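User: I've been going back and forth on whether these two constructs are worth ordering. Before I decide, could you fold them both?

Assistant: Sure. I'll take them in the order you sent them. The first construct and its structure tokens:
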Amino acid sequence: MAGGIEATVADMLTSLLNAEGFELVAVETAGNRRNQILRLLIHKHGGLSVSDCQVVDQVVRPVLEVHQILTEFKQLEVASPGVDRPLTTEPDFRRNIGRTVLIEATASDGQLYEVQGKIKKSVDGCVTLQQTSGETVHVEIARVCKGYIQLVW
């Protein structure tokens, strides 16, 4: 997740949401100076419903108000990150084992590279992909810049 207010909110809410059965995938800010939005993107095993988003709103709002986070924002949104969300964490990759992904990562020399393949496992900070050629590729999650599920239509 990004730095600044996003990291502060994530630190503040991650354990609370985990205890409620939700994963905080990302904290985003959007809008302009007069209409700032604080957006919490959440995930729940088995799928997310509108009522789940309402529950999370009710759980986090008092915490954000006590810490005066909401004074900076006109609106709080709680939503699913959607099917095309970026994959950035080990749980993101683990949740998508068996799916084909495209990953852009930074090599040890600082160069960007892309790799595509089916996720075989995600453990110990590393995601393992099997490419269509049959080759197995290991990518350190800390080096991932962007990772996306390749949707088949």
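The second construct, handled the same way:
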Amino acid sequence: MFMLRKIFYLLFLLHTFSPFANADEPPVPRLYVSPNWRHGEIGTIMIYPTNSLPKVKAKLIDPNGKVRATVQMFPYRFNKREGGEVAAVAMFGLSPELPSGLYSILVTTEKSNDFRSWETSTFVIGKKYPHKTIHFGTRGSRIQSTRPSKERIRQAKRFYQTLETYSPGSIFSTGPMQWPIRARWRSSSGFGERRTFVYTNGVRGGDFHDAQDMAGLPIGTPIYAAAQGRVVLAEYRVVTGYTIIIEHLPGTFTLYYHMNGITTYKGKQVKPGELIGYLGTTGFSAGPHLHFSLRVNGWPVDPNIYVKKPILDKHWMLRTIRKAQASRRR
């Protein structure tokens, strides 16, 4: 019996470590995580290779064990010049509302007859943001104190359904955005500010500011699409006034609030820099400005960062893929 076990073990070692073992088997898909996950930024994960993978979902789980996001991964194919490889990708918006600390990432396939899973972890680095007090006049105070109408409730439902829509084939833009206003503007509220609202009736409220407010310009200043995409919402809303939402990648949207008017429509594909509306002060607004927001799978991230660097970190993806290919050739 001892001799049989010894022979079996030797055969196992030869099969595992032989340079010819599994030569015809496809490479094993592996999970990779982009470095440096910080508040206000986008964390990217990738499974490579993925040619034969079924649909997969990724969960982001906070240090307390709470699932903060569940995202269907989408296939991204690099062009021929970049190698033509395919990877499954998921992007997570690292909002300052998320606690900092060690997060778990769990990825699973959806088909029970081909179930596979991957698990890893990453650390989300926190950031401190300033506080600001904003005084609202009569109109803003009236909107705040008015009981939501049926139409306002319908608008809110439609708004959140739009942001929860995930279209894996909607890949319009991966690079840096451009500012939606070309004229020189000033920041009236920056991304991440903790704000206290003071109303004319003495009531106080507060929130976390999930956008960059662009002010210091007259009503009617042109507003342009920040990147190529598809308009998924274009309407007047009680709270945000004339509002546009543009989809750029699966689960990735730019939002434009408080406009004086809209020049586009739902379903239209827009080019970067295409006119979409005009600056205003409609809805729940303290003065003329554009509330410009970038949301990734429901969570807001800092648009100031992504006018300088790509929304999808293709450079990290390509480096990772080439390292994986080189290790297989050794």
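Notes on the second construct follow. The first helix runs from residue 2 to 17. Helices lie at 2-17, 138-145, 150-164, 314-329.
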